[in-house]
Design a protein that fits this description.
Number of helices: 9
CATH topology of the largest domain: Rossmann fold
Shape: globular
Number of domains: 2
CATH class of the largest domain: Alpha Beta
Radius of gyration: 24 Å
Number of strands: 24
Strand order of the largest sheet: 3-2-4-5-6
Strand content: 15-25%
């Protein structure tokens, strides 16, 4: 019998002041401020002590080990890597050991796993608990406070049998995605219940079939058979995998899982003939598949990652993990209008501005790994500290209105600046998705927040009007309400299903799935509120 998770909320109707639908992020953007804050998480500290007592041997004073718990199918199991140390799960442990010294890998992945076998068992692997999901729950329960984060890569095997010699079985696709819709929320829900405070990062999928379908009995070099495929095969495969990825992203968004956008890293939508395979010009998405998978070699490993692809996966998961584990706060940076940075708690100091400024500092934003920060001035001057990249500024340009905030892209290799008229200035790998720079606004823009994948952003005005661009969704605003004090900042909830607006009197307005944790509206702070941050 098939059963659905009744905990999943219904999609929220999208209407109001919007440009297009949307997603999520962390971050805080202020109005022209006297002080700005960003939270920092201490990551190099020893893990908390365990309540488990050893059953044999002398009691040790050393802290218990910490773990990366990895779940998934043959990709997570390392099929395709030339050595275990080169698979993405092990590479990720090496990368994150800088943050969590002594980090160990607990890899429960099983080749051929679908969402159904992960949840209920019956796949290629045998688990004492009955399934991979139950084994993961058992590990979490047995190792309280020791698992630093969970990675999950699952879904492609739900549909990998749907492509045929030259066509795709759409009924098979619908069935596979239907099972994912049923199973994946239950898997994630069980993990959250076993370890509510452990962040989960989950991947969507690349499209291996862009390089063709293996011939029956050969399992070798599908790319060499591309000429024999029907002209619509590759576009149809892309639609198939896009449908799978949309279902994965929807579930992860509702369940509070940070998405690892593998499809974007593999440039799945880039069909421009800018790539080559064996010297032959091909679409870029096909070239990436051939470069990072075994689809275009004779190894017989076809849809699996080669060593280069394993490194791409490790890098993409690493960026997501860095963001996921830095959402709380053990410290805070305050920035004053003169460019001084004041670390509080355990927040480290990476430098500040002691020289005379042409314009006051109006915003501070931290990098995804919390190892650096940017300061931005009202004239659009950008100042980078720690591992924050400098990718440009408007400091030497004439602006119609002053800059009021900034937001970094997820990988930290770019950022947006927003001016009071809603004009957007994009630098580095930040893309321009639109602005209100040419529109008449009732009140000035005071801040912005990007979506987690960096493919959109929200702007918020002093009257609480919200403007959505790119893949940012509209969940409501206070634009039509009379406010006692102006809105000064916004923050988006982790799942990307809502956002919160803060007013200068400490009033908090939540929309969509954003939680309401209280406000200062009934008892205002001694000084006006100027910024908002999540923990």
């Amino acid at each position: 019998m098939e059963w659905r998770d009744a905990r999943r909320p219904l999609p929220i109707p999208r209407n109001g002041r919007t440009r297009r639908p949307g997603r999520t992020t962390l971050g805080t953007v202020g109005v022209a401020l006297l002080a700005l804050a960003a939270t920092w998480v201490g990551l190099g500290t020893a893990p908390p002590a365990s309540a488990v007592t050893p059953t044999a041997g002398p009691r040790s004073s050393a802290p218990p080990p910490s773990y990366q718990l990895s779940l998934g199918d043959s990709l997570t199991a390392g099929w395709g890597a030339s050595a275990p140390a080169l698979d993405y799960a092990n590479q990720l442990v090496g990368r994150e050991s800088v943050l969590f010294p002594g980090l160990r890998l607990e890899n429960l992945a099983c080749p051929g796993e679908t969402t159904t076998t992960m949840l209920r068992g019956g796949g290629m692997c045998s688990y004492p608990q009955g399934s991979q999901a139950l084994a993961a729950v058992a590990f979490l329960v047995a190792h309280p406070d020791q698992v630093r984060y969970i990675t999950i890569d699952i879904g492609i095997n739900n549909i990998d049998t749907c492509p045929g010699a030259s066509t795709i079985d759409q009924a098979c696709v619908a069935s596979g995605i239907g099972h994912l819709d049923d199973d994946l929320p239950l898997i994630i829900g069980d993990l959250h219940r076993a370890a509510p405070d452990v962040p989960i990062v989950g991947a969507d999928s690349y499209d291996p079939f862009l390089a063709g379908e293996p011939a029956a009995g050969t399992n070798d070099d599908p790319y060499s058979q591309l000429a024999g495929l029907s002209p619509g095969f590759s576009p149809a495969s892309l639609v198939m995998v896009d449908s799978l990825n949309a279902a994965i992203a929807l579930t992860y968004g509702f369940e509070g899982v940070r998405l690892v956008d593998i499809a974007d890293a593999f440039q799945s939508q880039d069909a421009a003939t800018t790539g080559t395979v064996a010297g032959v010009p091909v679409p870029q998405n096909v070239a990436d598949i051939c470069a990072w998978l075994h689809m275009c070699d004779s190894s017989g490993l076809t849809i699996h990652l080669n060593d280069a692809g394993e490194s791409v996966f490790a890098d993409q998961f690493g960026q997501a993990v860095d963001q996921a584990v830095t959402t709380g706060g053990d410290g805070t940076w305050l920035a004053d209008a003169g460019g001084g940075v004041h670390p509080l708690g355990d927040a480290p100091f990476f430098g500040d501005l002691s020289s005379r400024l042409d314009a006051p500092i109006v915003s501070l934003a931290s990098t995804g790994d919390q190892r650096g920060y940017w300061l931005v001035a009202a004239d659009g001057g950008v100042f980078s500290f720690g591992d924050a990249h400098f990718d440009g500024s408007t400091g030497v340009d004439h602006l119609d209105r002053p800059v009021v905030g900034m937001a970094p892209t997820p990988d930290g290799h770019g950022y947006w600046l927003v001016a009071a008229d809603g004009g957007i200035f994009s630098f580095g790998d930040a893309h321009f998705y639109g602005s209100t720079g040419g529109e008449h606004l009732d009140r000035p823009v005071v801040g912005m927040a990007p979506t987690p994948g960096g493919r959109g952003y929200w702007l918020v005005a002093a009257d609480g009007g919200v403007f959505s661009f790119g893949d940012a969704g509209f969940f409501g605003s206070t634009g039509g309400l009379h406010l006692v004090d102006p809105v000064v900042a916004m923050i988006v909830d982790r799942a990307g299903t809502g956002y919160s607006l803060a007013a200068a009197d400490g009033g908090l307005f939540t929309f969509g799935g954003a939680p309401f944790d209280g406000s200062l509206g009934g008892s205002p702070a001694a000084a006006p509120v100027v910024a908002l941050a999540g923990s």
